[in-house]
Amino acid sequence: MHFLSFITFALLSTFASASAIPRAATVCNGHAELCDRSYGNVTFVGAHDSFAFSEDPLALAADQRVDITSQLNLGVRLLQAQSHNHSGTINFCHTICLLFNGGTVSDYLKTVKAWLDTNPNEVLTLLFTNPDGASLKEQWDPAFKSAGIDALAYVPPSLPVAQKDWPTLGALLDSGKRVVVFMDTGADTTQVPYILPEFPNIWETPFTVTDKSFPCSVDRTAGPLANDAHMYMINHSLNKDVLGTGIDISDPWDAATTNGLTSIFAHANGCAQFADGRAPNFLLLDFVNIGEGFKAADTLNGFA
Ligand SMILES: *[C@@H]1O[C@H](CO)[C@@H](O)[C@H](O)[C@H]1NC(C)=O
Ligand SMILES: *[C@@H]1O[C@H](CO)[C@@H](O)[C@H](O)[C@H]1NC(C)=O
Ligand SMILES: CC(=O)N[C@H]1CO[C@H](CO)[C@@H](O)[C@@H]1O
Q: What pLDDT is recorded for position 252?
């Protein structure tokens, strides 16, 4: 009797104090341990050309087999996509819009926002390319606003952010700013503060790789920080020349091997020399539903 009422008292006071202070996230991206870890010290799985999904194995311009919501539900926490100016509207397209038109950026972001709303304890990164130089103020910002993602996007106090200086996942979640947006070229935070320039913060390995051993080198980067003070992304997708045509496409036939632990760990190990021994921050994969990308990330994060 005595003991039970003590328990009741303890429970009640726990609830009372929890409601008195702002609620702090206790599970972050699925793991309590990640709440106290810097965003710059976490390995996330990324989906390359996330919009370019098709179940049809003959859709050669498709780099994914499952849709964006399914990619997120599988555990993808970086969505990469290539934009194009399609008659004045920005769309996500593969190389050219005729080849694979993934729809408008605005519709894409609305899909992502719906997922974010039902998954409040998740930090997500968006990495968009802007080869047509679409306007930040006239095209990108309105697309983000139409989906309501601008309000969730993190704006660092200053740029670039060194790998060790990023806030913890818990801090990002508690602040409500749990989406980190990068753009490869043309970002200008004086125009749109939450679209961050990729290369001063993240370096990348080469792309359109056709060598299955994925030799690591620092391909795209920008100063002023040293490479080992950047986060980094391995572009871990294999391309294949279709029937000797000189046209490289993503290789679905080798996806299970490419996205297997052996291949991913070998690539990561090859890169550690450029990153003060650290694991990659982002494993950018094609066909994320095939292979063991999520297990690889768990292992690199120390969970498996
Ligand atoms: C995080 O830090 C640990 C300990 O220094 C390191 O082993 C790991 O590779 C780091 N991961 C990333 C993605 O920086
Ligand atoms: C986008 O396309 C429209 C119409 O084709 C054109 O008027 C506009 O200048 C283009 N924008 C950029 C940034 O190229
Ligand atoms: C082959 C491959 O995955 N290439 C991609 C590497 O990442 C950049 C984006 O940051 C893409 O533009 C490439 O398509």
A: 77
Counting from 1 in the atom list of ligand 2, the atom nearest the Cα of 133 is 13
Q: Is the CB of 239 under 6 A from ligand 2?
A: no
Q: Domain holding 87: CATH number?
A: 3.20.20.190
94 in active site: yes
Closest residue by Cα to residue 50 from 31, 35, 69, 33: 69
34: DSSP letter: G
pLDDT digits (tens, 9 = 90+) for 143-183: 999 999 999 999 999 999 999 999 999 999 999 999 999 99
Q: Is 257 exposed, middle or buried (0-12, 13-18, 19+ CB in 10 A)?
A: middle
Model confidence at 12, in pLDDT bands (50, 70, 90)? very low
| Total number of domains in the chain | 1
Please name which of 24, 21, 41 lies closest in space to residue 167, comparing C-alpha atoms: 41
Determine the residue type at 60. Answer: L
CB of 132 closer than 6 angstroms to any ligand 2 atom: yes
Catalytic residue chosen out of the listed positions 94, 230, 236, 267: 94
pLDDT, tens digit, 9 for 90 and up, residues 194-217: 999 999 999 999 876 677 889 899
- Give the domain range for residue 163: 3-300
**Is 84 among the catalytic positions?**
no
CA of 197 to the centre of ligand 2 (A): 22
